[in-house]
Amino acid sequence: MARRHVLIGVGPGSIAAAEEIRHADEGAEITLVGIEPEGYYSRPGLAYYITRELPESRLFPFTARDFARLRVTILADRAVAVDPTARRVTLESGRELVYDRLLMATGSQAVAAKAPGADLDGVVKLDHMDDARDLIRRCRDVGTAVVVGGGITALEIVEGIRARGVRVHYLMRQERYWRNVLSESESRIVEEALLREGVRLHHFTELAGIHGSDGRVAAVETADGSTIPCGLVAVAIGVRPRKELAEAAGVACDRGVLVDEHLRSNHPDVFAAGDLAEAWHEETGRRTLEVLWNAAVAEGRVAGRNMATEAVHPYEKSVPLNITRLAGVKTTIIGTVGNGEDRDLQSITRGNSETWSELGDAALVEVQSGRAHVRLALAEGVIVGALIMGDQALSFPLQELIEAQADIGAMAGSLQEPGAPVAELVTTLWRDWGARRD
Ligand SMILES: Cc1cc2nc3c(=O)[nH]c(=O)nc-3n(C[C@H](O)[C@H](O)[C@H](O)COP(=O)(O)OP(=O)(O)OC[C@H]3O[C@@H](n4cnc5c(N)ncnc54)[C@H](O)[C@@H]3O)c2cc1C
To answer: Is 408 helix (H, G, I), strand (E, B) or coil?
Structure first.
């Protein structure tokens, strides 16, 4: 009899798992269940949809032909209960699915603001396609918006709203944007770009409450007693794994679903991947949360392989990477680049990895090199992290050197000399490393 696989969630984690299952087992039955009628789309692409750079039709990575090739059944429904003993999933429609292997990949969701008034009409977030459409609709009717939060999502919302002609006040609790990942110069690059776009920045400013009129947002009150009249408040203070379904089923959870290095939970037939999974890493001996598209794909692949075969494939975590845009500036973030906590956030944000802010006592090199701003973190003869803003010529060489933990030997000293030609040195290192590898 064909093995029955049920995958909850229709995001990159589930799709990657489905591809691996199909690759390993031609005859497997694969059923995906997802709440959202849009099915599989690019969540990172929502930011570009709001700024009008991408039409909605360009947010779908798969065509109908891709799905036909995968031979999967997709149900637009919500999983409301999982019984790991009976190996059964109950859907909101009343339908029941029996599985041999189950993948839970329900992603994460925005943390709501705790301030009074946070439930007023006009307080928004950005999790789903529907949120993006709602934000776009609301921008037609409001003159001023307030954005609260940190990291990439808050910034994307600021840019999206501004691009739609709405005045934006951006509230930060700290003295500068994303201080636990970016250096002072990097925060300045972002903030100067925002100021040029006409965004009003409020540092050391905390949201104290939201005032309404007829149930709708009318103004924001800050902790220092100021009032900012506005018709929209966007909150991006972090995300949490959507673990309620797993928890109710008795699947062991902490911040997310606890999985071993094979992405398997405490129930041998139940796996988890993506934003939901708190994966164990043999190398570091700890669990981390990552809210990254590529990490969801990598975990989904390994989970899928382990679901389809009896063999055990370990998940080898790669160096977390995000190639993104911060206030219009192309930016690559690789490995460990920052330190400490971000007070603008109550939990991890989207497009983020906990690894990024664990710098320890690495030596830092930060230079303006031509049209690129480059920062390197060096420790124990290797480059452990890098952040490149602007010209991205060094992005790929640094991704390769960091992922391979390439020995940089005596070059570590040369890179740290004042006025060192960092771009040339990195390029030489990369070429030499490539020649040795080949
Ligand atoms: C605005 C935004 C910007 C982002 N920017 C970046 C970026 O720059 N770089 C980057 O790497 N990542 C970024 N991300 C994060 C990235 O999109 C996620 O890490 C990735 O989508 C996680 O994949 P996943 O498969 O774990 O879950 P998701 O893609 O979140 O999919 C989970 C799915 O499960 C469904 N679901 C939940 N509960 C149930 C249930 N009970 N029954 C059925 N279905 C259910 C949800 O509706 C959802 O469709 C961004 C995300 C957002 C929203």
So the answer is: coil
